[in-house]
Structure formats: C-alpha cells, structure tokens
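Translate structure to sequence.
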C-alpha cells in the first residue's frame, strides 16, 4: 500500500486550486512552491516575489481545519514569525480565497 499523509493531501488540493487562478497563471511574477513539515503538519509553502512573507498551508495538526501561516521564510519547517501569524479555516475553499487574495496583493 502507498500512503500519503492526509495533511499533505489537503494542502496539495489547496495548492492546485490556487494554481488554477487565471490571474496568477498569466502573471509575470514567479511564485515558487515547495514542501514543508512541522511535526504532524505536512504541507506546502508558497514563496511569492516582492512580498514580505512566505505562505505555509496544511491541515492543522490538532483538528480538521486548514491552517495558513504567513511569515518569514524558513528552509525547514515554518519560521517562528509565521507560527505567530496563523489563520484557520473550516474548509479548503475559504483558505484558497484567502491565499489568492494575498498573492494578488489585496491583503
């Protein structure tokens, strides 16, 4: 059996929805996406250019909620700054809207 961690699966679904945003697809900015792990949280980090923060997304480790952290870049895990600036969402779609708004510079 091949098993992918549920937190990573949910984060991947969110990343795919974010990447489907036509505005971001047509943008000339280079947005880099990578993986991260913070204990039981496994997810993705989005590194947009010209912004003051990296966006981290995963399933929150103590619940079924989606957590989005925003803060300084960290090569491993999440930065303490990002950990202090988190927001949780009850479903993927609200998290996607929030991330898209951040990437478009509306937040």
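Result:
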């Amino acid at each position: 059996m091949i098993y992918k961690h549920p937190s990573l699966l949910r984060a991947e679904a969110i990343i795919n929805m974010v990447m489907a945003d036509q505005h971001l697809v047509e943008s000339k900015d280079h947005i880099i996406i990578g993986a991260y792990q913070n204990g039981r949280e496994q997810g993705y980090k989005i590194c947009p250019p010209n912004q003051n923060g990296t966006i981290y997304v995963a399933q929150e480790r103590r619940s079924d909620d989606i957590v989005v952290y925003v803060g300084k870049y960290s090569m491993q895990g999440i930065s303490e700054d990002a950990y202090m600036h988190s927001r949780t969402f009850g479903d993927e779609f609200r998290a996607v809207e929030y991330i898209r708004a951040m990437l478009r510079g509306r937040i």
